[in-house]
Amino acid sequence: MKRLLLIIMAVVALSLSALAQGMQVESFRLLENDLTANRRGTMRTDKNGETAALIKIVCPEKGFAFDGGSLGIVGTVDKPGETWLYVPRYAQKLTISHKYFGVLRDYVYPITIEGGRTYELLLDIGTGRYVTITSQLAEADVTIDGKHAGPAPVYNRYLSFGPHEFKAIKGHHEGTLQVDVTQDTRRGEVFHIGMQDMSFLYGDVTVSVADGADIFFEGRKVGAGTWSTQLKEGAYFVETIRENSDTAQTSFNVVRGQRNDITANAPTPHTGYLSIYTHPRNVQALYDGRTAIDLSQTQSLPVGRHELQFSKKGYVSQSHTYHIERNQTTRDTIQLERVTYVRPLAFYFGAGYTVSALGGISGILGAVFQRHDLQLGYTFGMTESDPVYWYDDGGHWLSTVAYRQSTLSVRYGYQLNLTRQLAITPQAGYSMHMLSSTVKAGEGNYGNSGKAGCLTLGVKLLLVPMQHFYVFAAPEYGVVLSQDAYYKHASDIAGFKAGGFAMSAGLLFSF
After folding, report:
1. Which of 29, 373, 423, 505 is disulfide-compatible with 473, CB 3.0–4.6 A?
2. What secondary structure letter does DSSP report for 494?
């Protein structure tokens, strides 16, 4: 066994030695339009404070050491596919070494190195060749041995000795080229990929997934919810992705010349748990405003924020938002309050009919604040009085007039709730009665606009069959405080009075 290991180590050492003998600079040039060496963020300065030059060393391998001689090296940065080497201006030579590929000693720069300029060095490590790859159609996507290499033409791609496969694709045009890179392959050789139209091998493809999940194909997002394209016949797969969900994968086959409709598997949502206790029981719960859920059991819900609406007849509905976390249980207690039909704070308006000596239709507007009730009312007279005959001082008849009475009133009361749907409000107020006359015979419109003022005492009864809707009845007694001569004369003769008993009843709407 030891002898076998020694033989293997010797073979490896000989191979590496052979490789080391082939390391050399393929090309060195100034990148005229590359400002990397003089741009903020990528600029470096040497020990004298002067801007260094940047040499981009292109090589498929890493792990190189650099020696700039007496002027030294400012620094190095590893980048994909290349190493950035910063050197002082007027640098003259460079030694490159590697533990596997050996040493390239005292390479002399073919042009003067200037500070703040960017250069490119193609380093051949002796295991392959730098080549250029072109395609029949410009900017076709090129792959080398199954790895994406970018759009054609692909310049200065280092390929190890041995067989390689190039592919170029643009739209439905495709091409493949098999090459064998050997010691006889010219440095910088150009390989051209021929292409042909392969449309006859393609089929129409539509991929759809529930809930608008993102669709990924070959590592990139191609749609959300749906994706339509054309694919070459064969087997493929898509991934569907959604936040807070496990990614799902769907495989499918494309048949050439046909429509291929694919229903992709939806991502599986991450879930958590929600446990709600309610008082009273048997409360209806709607999840996100559309789905009824059973609160008697712990519910499994998707991770995220969700709104639940709780309702029960005779109780005030509530809405709550919950943040559901993965595999965690969120708990809450919901206490619904009974509907307050008779409200201690409300604005209201309505209408009714007032029965009195001269009754009419009444309009009402008011407000309740902490049970204090302030109400304004206006009654438009509908009942006409008996005729009143007017005579002059000599006893001669002048005219016959009938009267209607309109009333403007203000009342204050204190609301007492007897039950949830029944209340009583003792009230005190002031009413101003105004007469409007209609001449039945003669010419004199006597007594028009006669006025009387009354103090009123009464009570307002409220029955609330449903929220915001009141039925009221309000008996009251009026005590006359003042009346002018016209009102007194008309009321005495027609038989109506400013005060006395009256009853109003009707409907109110509160908000």
Report:
1. 505
2. H
Listing DSSP states for 75-141 in one string gives: EEEEETTEEEEEE-TT--EEEEEETTTEEEEEEEPSS---TT-EEEEEEE-SSEEEEEEEESSTT-E
Contact 132, 188 (CB under 8 A): yes
Burial class (CB in 10 A: 0-12, 13-18, 19+), 48: exposed
Tokens coding 6? 């020694």
Q: Which of 472, 455, 481, 373 is nearest to 421 (CA)?
A: 472
Tell how far CA 187 is from the center of its chain: 56
The pLDDT averaged over each successive group of 10 residues in the chain (511 residues) is 46 41 86 95 94 95 93 94 95 94 94 96 93 95 93 93 96 94 92 95 96 94 96 96 94 96 95 94 88 90 92 90 94 90 89 94 96 96 92 87 95 93 96 94 87 97 91 97 92 90 96 87
pTM of the shown model: 0.49
Contacts with 197 (C-beta within 8 Å, 6 or more apart), sequence order:
172, 173
